[in-house]
Amino acid sequence: MRRLFLPALALVAPLLAATAPQSSDVVAIWGRAAPGSERRAGEQEQLEDGAYVHNVHRPSLTILRPRSEHANGTAIIIAPGGGHRMLVFQNEGVAPAKILNRYGITVFVLRYRLAREPGSTYTIERDAAADARRAVRWVRAHAADYGVSPRRIGLMGFSAGGELVSLVADNFESGDQVRGDNLARINGRPDFQVLVYPGPIGIPAADVAHAPPAFIAAGALDTCCAGPALTLFQQLKQAGRTAELHIFSGVGHGFNVGVHDERLSIQHWPDRLADWMSDEGAVSLTRTRLCTMHLGLCGQRISWRAPATRPAPRSGAACRSACQ
Fold first, then answer.
1. Which end of the chain is more exposed for a tag (fewer CB within 10 A), N or C?
2. Beta pairing partners, 76
3. CA 113, 114, 119, 120 torsion: positive or negative?
């Protein structure tokens, strides 16, 4: 595999220009340096095969916005997986962000510090989790700048990124260790959480009684992460918290958003997430956007709106009828 060496932030946005649905900005969430990274903050990140990020010492958010006419005020921060050795930035970051943008959601893809990379001095619970918590605080503090509600901020993670979601959303909160930092006073828990084949760290959760609503997905054949998904769901259920669990038959680890899997259940699981967010009040989907989810069935571009008293199309047949 071929690696490119990049400045930590300066060259990121141009590389993403071809894949971003609208504009993408990159912001450092700790300012000049994250706590514990002061000596390495100036090091270059490494981009492997245009898709995998290494050597993160200045954590950042890549911001991908929906079209203005579709924006609905909901934000989701995505923590890609990669075993804490790298970040699967394309298939578990940019690709799901583009799908979420279609639902009108503003997306912030997180580059967090990697605790299992060779030579790393970071830890998952102290540093990587702090980056995820800091990302929630940063987005909440800057919500007005991006047209999102500070009360509709979700944290989504794949695999190792799912571990960070649980550490932040389902476990006790800690303040950011930066003296005189006003951002540390802001609530660092998300308003909802999305865990996609989450790893075992942070599960069982230590503070599930205060956990936000959760959407959990995993493959039935996933020997790593189906167990933690089930355990967290059972914990949330026993604590009386809101949770929805999807276990996909015949599917293993790393199905992301169906980039390499043609199963219909995997191709369409983001629609189940959108349904759940709508049901929970985390996102408001217009009639047009609900029908647009089924464009492949309609076979054409549409702009269909129904009276408020008419149910929105929830199935392919209903959408296909609406297209006519």
1. N
2. 107, 154
3. positive
Of 59 and 5, more confident: 59
241 and 137 fall within a common domain? yes
Give the C-alpha separation, 94 to 90, whole Å. Answer: 5
Can you state the angle between helices 129-141 and 160-169, rounded to 10 degrees?
Answer: 60
Quick one: tokens of 249?
A: 């038959």
Kindly state whether residues 312 and 213 are assigned to the same domain. no
Q: Which residues contact 136 (CB under 8 A, 6 or more apart)?
A: 77, 153, 155, 168, 187, 188, 189, 190
Neighbour order of strands in the sheet with 87-88: 3-6, 45-48, 52-54, 87-88
The whole-angstrom separation of Cα 291 and Cα 301 is 10
Reported pTM: 0.82
Task: Render pLDDT for 115-136 as a digit per residue (tens, 0 to 9).
Answer: 999 999 999 999 999 999 999 9
Same domain, 19 and 70: yes
Handedness of CA 68, 14, 196, 135 (dihedral sign): negative
Percent of the residues in the chain that have a pLDDT greater than 90, as a whole number: 67
Instruction: Please check whether residues 79 and 202 belong to one and the same domain.
Output: yes
Question: In Å, what is the CA distance from 242 to each residue of 159, 274, 296?
Answer: 21, 16, 32
Tell me the two tokens of residue 2. Answer: 């071929």
Write the pLDDT tens digit of every residue in 237-273: 999 999 999 999 999 998 999 888 888 889 899 999 9
Is the Cβ–Cβ distance between 176 and 133 less than 8 Å? yes
Residues 275 and 297 reside in one and the same domain: no
Structural domain of 292: 286-324
Tell the residue number behind the tokens 């893809």, with chain if given.
109
The CATH number of residue 225's host domain is 3.40.50.1820
Give how many domains the chain has, as a whole number: 2
Place of tokens 């918590």: 133
Residues 158 and 265 in one domain: yes
